[in-house]
Structures are given as structure tokens and as C-alpha cells.
Please model this.
Amino acid sequence: MKKITVLIFSLFLQNLLLAQTNNSENYGLVTYERILNFDNKPESTIFSLFFNPNSSVFYENRKEIIEETTMKPITDDEFDLSFEVKFNGSKYIVLTDFEKDSIQSQVSLFSEGKQQTYIVQEKINNIKWTILSEFSTINDFKTQKAIGEFRGRKFNVWFTNQIPVKYGPWKLNGLPGLILEVSDERNEVMFYAKSIKIPFNINSKSKSDFEFNSDFEKISLTNYLNLKQEQVNEVKNLFISKLPRGAKMEISNIKSNSIELEYEKLIKN
Model:
């Protein structure tokens, strides 16, 4: 079936085009470097954040490749099983809309032996930030420190009132200024603003950077978490199928390297 791409929020893009004449300080483009440091193996990815007064689009700039699962020995008869599934051409996109109180994320999972992409829908989680009397200068902007907890992690962030928008990288938002730097207390998740363009001319950017695909199924966050667990089970079964005849595999521990660690409150809602 022919796939039809649709533009995320035409109103969002139209508002960006008005940046030159209407509150231009509230429209812009920020490039972030995200560093994930799980198991002392830091990995860097470049993301972009487009924003206007009511909505933002955060998306990754690189294309992924499929990575194989690995097994490494712990003892003579035990192995540490780990796997990471990435997909060629799959973009991670997060659309935050404060007017609709919604976040939509484009994500891909390994299911039935192939890539499946979904649009995960959820409400904005209002982070309770504590703003501290600590200041710093980042990218020539005066910034202030804040601390907040979100989905199992405690984040230290630096935001600037000189860009009076409530956005930041990924799903972190709600402060009285743009978030420029982020680090969690485990030093596993970090975001750093590398460049800031205000105002930004949307005509200079490819429209494909903003697109969801209309063929992608829209699902709830709860459904997505269930599918993630099914992905784990499918990969485990894949390993079992490769074992020599008569061999057995016992799973003693499952560790998830994820930015989001806790979802219980959202599931109950």
C-alpha cells in the first residue's frame, strides 16, 4: 500500500513562518547532543528541537542501523545476554502540544521478526520543578538551575529566561525558559544545547524532518509498554532457537537500559 506522509501540525509550521514579525523570540531551532551512558558505554546522538509558543517537535538527525544481539561469558557455564535493536531509516520524533495537553512519539519495535513503527500517544506529565538560586552562562545565555523528577530519574537542568518558552529536549518541559542542559543523577542521560537559532526560517528545513506516516498505528502508552515486553520475549525466544539441541537457557535477570524507568502512575491513570 502506498504510504502517505502527513505534516505534523500545519498550524505549527505556519506559526513558525510568522516568526519574523510576531514575537520572534518565541520561535526557533535548537540542536542538542544527547549522550546515553549505560554500562559505561557512552553513545552520542544529535537531535533538533523546533518550537513555537504552543508546540514543539524534537527529532533525531541520524539514521539507525540494525545491531546484532550479543552474548559474553561471565563464567564457564554462564553468559550475560544483552541486545539492542535499532532500525535503518527510523526516526525518533516527539511532538509536544500544550494546547492539546498531548505528547506523540514515533517509535519502532522489533515484532514478528521485523520492524514495526507506532505513534505513542500520552498526556503531558507536569514535572514539579524546584528552581534553585544557582546561575551559569551557557552559549552566551544566562541560565538558572532547576531540579525535577520524571519517570524514575532525578534531573538537574539549566534553563534561560532570555528565551521565554517552556520547552526543552525530549519530554522535559514546563520551566519559564528554554532548557539548555540536562543531566540525571546517575550520569546516564545528558543533553547539551550545541546551537540556537532564533528566529528560524522554516523554509530552510526539509519538510520530511517533521513528518509522521499516516500508516503508522496510534497506540496508548500502556499498549506500547506491553509491546516492548513482547519485544524482549521475542528476542529471548530467538536466542533459545539458536541453542544447540539439548541446551537450556535460564534467564536470571532482566535489565532495561532506558531513559524512562517508571510508568506506574501513568498506567493507573
